[in-house]
Specification:
Layout lengths: L2 E6 L4 H11 L7 E8 L2 E8 L2 H10 L6 E7 L14 E3 L2 E9 L2 H10 L10 H15 L2 H11 L2 E9 L6 E6 L4 E4 L4 E4 L11 E4 L4 E5 L4 E5 L4 E2 L4 E2 L4 H5 L6 H7 L1 H9 L3 E2 L4 E2 L8 H5 L3 E6 L1 H18 L3 E5 H4 L10 E7 L5 H12 L3 E6 L5 H5 L2 E4 L12 H20 L5 H21 L3 H11 L4 E6 L4 H15 L2 E6 L16 E5 L6 H13 L3 E7 L3 H4 L4 E5 L7 H20 L17
Parallel strand pairs: 18-19, 18-20, 20-21, 21-22, 23-24, 23-25, 25-26, 26-27
Antiparallel strand pairs: 1-4, 1-10, 2-3, 2-4, 5-6, 6-7, 7-8, 8-12, 9-10, 9-11, 11-15, 12-13, 13-14, 16-17
Bound molecules: fructose -6-phosphate (F6R).
Fructose -6-phosphate binds next to helix 10.
C-alpha cells in the first residue's frame, strides 16, 4: 500500500516529511526513505524497517533543503531492504511511488536495452528511469513526466523531484490516492490527509489521470496530456485520529471499503486476458511439476482456513486436482502423509502464524513442495515457502480479517485458473471468460458496498439476539463459517456456521422464533436445495435473513429480511457474499459498543501456539 509525502516551501522539508510519514505508517513500515534538495544536491537517506530507523539515520546525518519527498513502504515487488526502499533515483530524477506497475517487465527490458542499469528489485525504479530517459531527450521535466506516465500501465501515485530543476515538485496519480495540501507559501502532497493535517486543513483531491506541478509560489493542475484544470479545495474538519482511519469510525470499516481496490491490486498484472492465461510472478514451481501434481494440501488457521475451504472448490473444479484441507494446528501433529508429487499451500495474512509456519516446516521436512498465499512480503512463511502468491491487500489493522480474506479468495482463484491451463482442464476460451468476470469483480464489490445503510438498519433489528446460525452450501458453506466467525469475534454473540444440508442432522433443534438464521441463497447450482433448507427453518418459526443475488422476489414474503447482492458467476459468489457478512457483524458490534478493531482476547497475529 505505501505512503508518500512531498513538500515545497520555505521551511526545512525533512521534519515536515518525517511527521507526515509517521502518520502514514499504517500504510506500511517495511522501509522508509527521504530525499531533500539542498543547493543542487540530492540528500537521499533510506533505511529498512520502521520509520524510527530512518529518524535515527537523519539524526546522525541530517538532510537539509526546503523541498523534498518521502516514502514509507509496504513491500510488493522486491523484499523489504534498504536497496528496495524509496526514493529511487535515475540520473537527475528522484521519485517516490505508491501502487503497482503492471507492465514493468517489458518496460525494464526496453530500458535495459537502452543502457539503463537498475539497482533495486522494485517496479518503481522503472518509472524513475523512464522519466530520466525522456528528460535526457527533451530537457523538459514536466514533459518527461507526462511521456513516462503515458507508457506506464497499472496504479500509481508519484511525487517526483528533478535535481536540475530544484524549484519544481511534480505529483500525479492513477488508481492510488493522492491529496494536495495548500499552506501559506508552501505546498504539501501525500497519500492521505493525516500526513498534512498539522500544517493545513485546505485539501485538494487529485483524480485519476491528473497531475500537479508545484513551485514555491504556485501550483498548477493539468491532465496527463497537459490540458490545464481548475480544482477546488475543501476544508477538512476531521480530528487527526479520524483522519488516520480515512474518516471511517473504525479501521475494520475502512478495510471493508478498501476491498474493491485491494481486489483490483491482487488481480493487476496477473490476468492475461488475451492469452487466456494467468501470470503469477513468484510461483517458482515449473509447469511440469504443476502438471504432474497428484494432490494439494491447503493448510491455514481461522479466516485464512475459510479461504482455503473455498480454494478447495476452485482447485478441484477448475484444475481437477484432489485437495485435502486442514487446520494448521491439527496438521502439524497428525504426522500427515505427504506424497512426493504433492503441493502444500499455506494461506496466511500475516505470514507469521506459529501453527501455519510449523505446518510449512512439517511439509518441507517430509520433502513436499510448498506455496504460500500471503499478504506480508518477506514474512517468515513467505521466506520459507518455495513459491509465493502475494495478496496485495495492504496492511490490515483491524483484528477481524476482511480485505485479506477476499484477496486470498482471488489469489486462490487465479491459482486454480493457472493450474487449470497447465493441466489442460481449462480451455483458453473458458479462462478468458473467467478472467473477464474477475476483472468486473471490483466494480461489483463497489456496488455491494451500497448495501451499507440497509445492513446497518438490519443490525438494529437483530442486535439483541443471543445466538445466530449461518447456513450455506457448496462454496458458500465456508462463507457461512466466516460470517459466523466475524460475528463471534467482534460482537461476542454466539454464532455457528453450518452446511445447509446438514441442518436437519442436528442444529434444526435450535430453531425457534428468537434465532436469526442467515441463509446464503443466491442463484447457483444448489439454489433449489438451499431454498428447501430455508423453508425448513421458516416452518419452525426461525427468523431468516436471506442473502440472494439480483431481485429474488419469490423469497421476499417468506423471510424476515432480504439482502440482495449483484449477480456474478457462481464461483465468484463467495467473494461478493462476504461483504454483507462483514457489514452485518460490524454494525451489530458497533451497536453493542464493543472494541471493534481490537476485540477482547484476540491478537492480529498469533505467533505462539
Ligand atoms: C479472523 C482472523 C483470524 C486469522 C488467523 C490466521 O478474523 O483474522 O482467524 O485469520 O489468526 O491468521 P493469518 O492469516 O495471519 O495466518
Amino acid at each position: 500500500m505505501c505512503g508518500i509525502v512531498g513538500y515545497i516551501g520555505l521551511q526545512q522539508a525533512s521534519p515536515i516529511i518525517l511527521d507526515g510519514l509517521r502518520r502514514l505508517e499504517y500504510r506500511g513500515y517495511d522501509s522508509a526513505g527521504i530525499c531533500t534538495l539542498d543547493e543542487g544536491v540530492a540528500q537521499i537517506r533510506r533505511a529498512q524497517g520502521k520509520l524510527l530507523n530512518l529518524e535515527n539515520l537523519l539524526y546522525d546525518n541530517p538532510a537539509r533543503g526546503t523541498r523534498g519527498v518521502g516514502h514509507t513502504r509496504w513491500a510488493t515487488h522486491g523484499r523489504p531492504s534498504e536497496i528496495n526502499a524509496h526514493p529511487h533515483r535515475a540520473g537527475s530524477i528522484v521519485l517516490v511511488h505508491n501502487g503497482i506497475i503492471e507492465n514493468y517487465i517489458s518496460l525494464k527490458g526496453r530500458l535495459q536495452d537502452l543502457g539503463h542499469q537498475f539497482s533495486s528489485e522494485t517496479d518503481t525504479e522503472i518509472i524513475a528511469h523512464l522519466v530520466e530517459d525522456h528528460y535526457r531527450d527533451s530537457g523538459d521535466f514536466e514533459q518527461a513526466v507526462r511521456q513516462a506516465l503515458a507508457e506506464v500501465k497499472g496504479a500509481y501515485a508519484v511525487a517526483i523531484l528533478c535535481i536540475d530543476e530544484p524549484d519544481k515538485l511534480i505529483a500525479a496519480k492513477l488508481g492510488s490516492p493522492l491529496v494536495v495540501g495548500q499552506g501559506k507559501g508552501e505546498y504539501f502532497v501525500a497519500s492521505d490527509i493525516p500526513a498534512m493535517l498539522s500544517h493545513t486543513r485546505e485539501m485538494i483531491f487529485l483524480e485519476d489521470g491528473e497531475m500537479v506541478v508545484f513551485t514555491p509560489l504556485a501550483m498548477r493542475f493539468s491532465d496527463l496530456a497537459g490540458n490545464p484544470l481548475t480544482k477546488q479545495s475543501k476544508t477538512i474538519t476531521w480530528s487527526p485520529t479520524m483522519a488516520e482511519k480515512g474518516g471511517y469510525r473504525h479501521f475494520m470499516l475502512k478495510e471493508i471499503y478498501e476491498q474493491p481496490r485491494a481486489l483490483a491490486d491482487t488481480i493487476a498484472g496477473r490476468a492475461l486476458v488475451e492469452e487466456g492465461d494467468v501470470y503469477l510472478e513468484d510461483l517458482d514451481l515449473d509447469d511440469a511439476q504443476l502438471a504432474g501434481l497428484e494432490k494439494i494440501f491447503i493448510i491455514a488457521c481461522g479466516t485464512s482456513w475459510h479461504a482455503g475451504l473455498v480454494g478447495k472448490f476452485y482447485l478441484e473444479k477448475i484444475a481437477r486436482v484432489p485437495v485435502e484441507i486442514d487446520i494448521a494446528s491439527e496438521f502439524r501433529y497428525r504426522d500427515p502423509i505427504i506424497p512426493a508429487n504433492s503441493l502444500t499451500i499455506l494461506v496466511s495474512q500475516s505470514g507469521e502464524t506459529a501453527d501455519t509456519l510449523a505446518a510449512l516446516r512439517e511439509a518441507h521436512g517430509k520433502g513436499g513442495k510448498t506455496l504460500c498465499i500471503c499478504n506480508v512480503v518477506d514474512s517468515s512463511i513467505a521466506r520459507e515457502s518455495d513459491g509465493i502468491i502475494y495478496t496485495h491487500a495492504g496492511p490490515e489493522i483491524g483484528v477481524a480479517s476482511t480485505k485479506a480474506f477476499t484477496t486470498q479468495l482471488v489469489a486462490l482463484y487465479l491459482l486454480a485458473l493457472k493450474l487449470g491451463r497447465i493441466r489442460r482442464s481449462l480451455s483458453a476460451a473458458d479462462c478468458q471468460a473467467r478472467l473477464a468476470d474477475l476483472l468486473e469483480l471490483p466494480r461489483k464489490l463497489e456496488e455491494t458496498l451500497e448495501l451499507d445503510a440497509e445492513i446497518e438498519e438490519l443490525a438494529r433489528e437483530f442486535v439483541n439476539a443471543r445466538d445466530f446460525l449461518y447456513l450455506g452450501r457448496g462454496n458458500l458453506y465456508p462463507i457461512a463459517l466466516e460470517g459466523a466467525l466475524k460475528l463471534k469475534e467482534i460482537s461476542y454473540i454466539h454464532a455457528e456456521g453450518y452446511p445447509a444440508g446438514e441442518m436437519k442432522h442436528g442444529p434444526i433443534a435450535l430453531i425457534d422464533e428468537d434465532l436469526p438464521v442467515v441463509v446464503l441463497v443466491p442463484r447457483n447450482s444448489t439454489y433449489d436445495k438451499v431454498v428447501s433448507n430455508m423453508e425448513e427453518v421458516c416452518a419452525r418459526g426461525g427468523q431468516v435473513i436471506a442473502v440472494v443475488s439480483g431481485d429474488d422476489e419469490e423469497l421476499l414474503d417468506k423471510v424476515a429480511a432480504l439482502i440482495s447482492v449483484p449477480t456474478v458467476d457462481e464461483d465468484l459468489l463467495p467473494i461478493i457474499t462476504s461483504v454483507p457478512m462483514q457489514l452485518l457483524a460490524y454494525y451489530i458490534a458497533v451497536l453493542k459498543g464493543t472494541d471493534v478493531d481490537q476485540p477482547r482476547n484476540l491478537a492480529k497475529s498469533v505467533t505462539v501456539e
